[in-house]
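If your schedule permits, I should be very grateful for your opinion on a structural question. I have a record of one protein: its chain in single-letter code and its fold written as discrete structure tokens. Would you kindly read the sequence against the tokens and tell me how you understand this chain to fold? Thank you for your consideration; the sequence and its tokens are set out here.


***
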Amino acid sequence: MLTNVPTDLLRTFVTVVDLGSYTRAGEALGRTQPAISLQIRRLEELLRTQLINTEGRQIRLTDGGVALGPYARQILRLNDDIVAHYAAEALSGWIKVGLPTDFANAFLLGAITRFAASQPDVRIEVESRLSRDLRGDLAADRLDMVVAIAPTQDEAYLVNTATITPIWAVADSFRWEEKSTLPLVRHPDPCEYADRMRNALRGSRKAWKTKMVSGDVAGIQAAVLAGIGASALTPATLLPGLRVGTLAEGFPPLAPLRIGLFYKHARLSKAAHGLAQWLMQQITLAGQDLPA
């Protein structure tokens, strides 16, 4: 009966996935290509399922391999957290981080700034784009780590998630007659926030119309502050002058979403791992700032 899965086998599996090659995984882990193949076979034997198909020089995950990915990454994250806790090493180096325009940019930048202030030898470069674009940049190795919306639990390179319930945000002076059409301010489609607003209104049989579309969270905030309409935001992005639209006013509950931390274990430096730990703590706390 299987009771333990060795972390070295999981690390080999994740490294092969991250680097897309048995040979490159061997170089990263200091092993030969045959040794990497042997470890993957051993892991498949332990789990009694095929994990990787090899087609020429291309590797493709089986359904079993896709399912294993999130478990393996979470176990390795916890393992690396333990090692970092007891190592107590000074951190240094460059980190390229991707932050979404459709989440709490100011909040996340503040969290990164506090981390950088506590680690004088760490240098951080921040890119800000839509979540889907950030995930693509990580896959192409243009970023070291990404905070982004995770539409599904099996997204590539997803290491950890925190659940956050969006809130209806309106100006302090905004008033909505429940039987009238609700003006919406939203991000361009496809957008998880826009989908949640429309689904909630559709489910409660309330009329709406899009009043303004902005690809930047600052544009959304400015439009809502001006009283143009209502939007879905996270608690951390509720600025002074904005308030939560309540159920008593007719605003239906919004479905929760997952904010994910994405990175490739094989390419993550110790400094980046330290930032990853810090960001997940802050994101989790952000979702608890206000009730849904």
Observations:
- The chain has three domains: 7-85, 89-164+257-286, 167-249.
- The mean pLDDT is 89.
- DSSP finds nine helices and twelve strands in the chain.
